[in-house]
Amino acid sequence: MIEITETAARKIRTLMAKQGLDEGGLRVGVKGGGCSGLSYIFAWEREPRFGDDVFEGSDGAKIFVDKKSLLYLNGTVLDYDTSLMSKGFVFNNPNAKSNCGCGSSFGA
Question: Among 41-45, 52-56, 94-98, 102-106, which stretch is predicted with the lowest mean pLDDT?
Fold first, then answer.
């Protein structure tokens, strides 16, 4: 399971509206690479792919996660940092054994 905070859910809905998407959600995943071994990926999609897990936050905000990525993301809380220094989505991932300084990659 992946939890979506209210702040992240609001940002997902706002960004979807800017993309002209009434339906769909944010694809969240993991791929090899980055300074710590694995990188988080994002993409806007109109609907989940076959086999995706779909997680829903407040305001109907949805994220789509493939089965392989869920192995690394299960138990994660997706938040959105609104500070002036580092705006962006933040993964509070209990499976990450190490994180890079930029927060976009991790080691498992």
Answer: 102-106
**DSSP result, 47-72:** SPPTT-EEEE-GGG-EEEE-HHHHHH
Tens-place pLDDT, residues 22-60 = 899 999 998 876 555 788 889 999 999 999 999 999 989
pTM of the predicted model as reported, rounded to 2 decimal places: 0.84
**What's the CATH number for 3-95?**
2.60.300.12
SS3 7: helix
Gyration radius (Cα) of the chain, Å: 13
Token pair, residue 16, equals: 């979807």
**Minimal CA–CA distance to 3: which of 74, 60, 53?**
74
DSSP state of 90: E
